[in-house]
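for the recovery benchmark. tokens below, seq after
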């Protein structure tokens, strides 16, 4: 199981995301890095934890349509592999993100205008370049679900699979940065049963090694982590323990 550090970008710097309340986000304070500069934080993940594959949540793009493409390119030039959520709403944006060298573009339920565009993304790009994010808030889908013809998270997830998705994030924003555990496991389990070949990523609320072990034992392919890395509750020893178990 991969550990994917999260870089939440807002105002061009890394912020600490808490419960999806974006107006309260502030520059991150980390035991790993001395500044909130994206390159400093990313390099600290690599230097201290051995992690060079990152999830970038570009809140400047999601909230204000001002993507930090220069930061994407700098990270990639420095040897990082990144998947990017920039509030995708059309095919052209996906092309622009992937043209920076990003390995995968995130099509988030919060912003994507329905399954038709998701199908176009899956038809246009390699299946590893498109990741659908099943965005939730306290278990309820985020965004306009009218074009999905259902508000049931499991049904939305399965419809995404039907249009070609092979890699999916299941994330409840209400749990991000709260440190109360990961509530998405039952939904992930249902999705695994419905589509065994689906690559599943989850996160939001990861606290410690025990949480990582539980996710790993349930067959999750990768987990998004931020706060537990910055506060030191998950460090190199915990990451090595997880990676030694499955050889990833």
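predicted aa per position
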């Amino acid at each position: 199981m991969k550990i994917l550090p999260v870089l939440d970008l807002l105002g061009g710097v890394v912020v600490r995301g808490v419960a999806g309340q974006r107006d309260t986000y502030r520059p991150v304070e980390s035991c790993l890095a001395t500044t909130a500069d994206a390159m400093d934080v990313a390099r600290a993940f690599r230097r201290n934890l051995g992690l060079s594959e990152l999830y970038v949540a570009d809140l400047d793009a999601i909230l204000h349509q001002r993507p930090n493409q220069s930061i994407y390119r700098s990270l990639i030039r420095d040897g990082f592999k990144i998947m990017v959520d920039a509030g995708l709403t059309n095919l052209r944006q996906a092309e622009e993100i992937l043209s920076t060298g990003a390995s995968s573009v995130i099509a988030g339920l919060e912003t994507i205008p329905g399954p038709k565009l998701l199908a176009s993304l899956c038809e246009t790009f390699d299946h590893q370049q498109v990741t659908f994010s099943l965005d939730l808030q306290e278990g309820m889908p985020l965004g306009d679900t009218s074009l999905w013809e259902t508000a049931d998270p499991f049904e939305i997830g399965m419809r995404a699979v039907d249009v070609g998705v092979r890699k999916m994030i299941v994330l409840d924003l209400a749990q991000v940065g709260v440190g109360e555990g990961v509530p998405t496991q039952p939904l992930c389990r249902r999705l695994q049963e419905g589509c065994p070949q689906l690559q599943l990523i989850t996160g939001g609320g990861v606290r410690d090694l025990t949480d990582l072990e539980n996710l790993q034992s349930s067959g999750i392919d990768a987990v998004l982590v931020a706060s537990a890395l910055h506060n030191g509750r998950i460090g190199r020893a915990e990451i090595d323990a997880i990676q030694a178990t499955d050889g990833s």
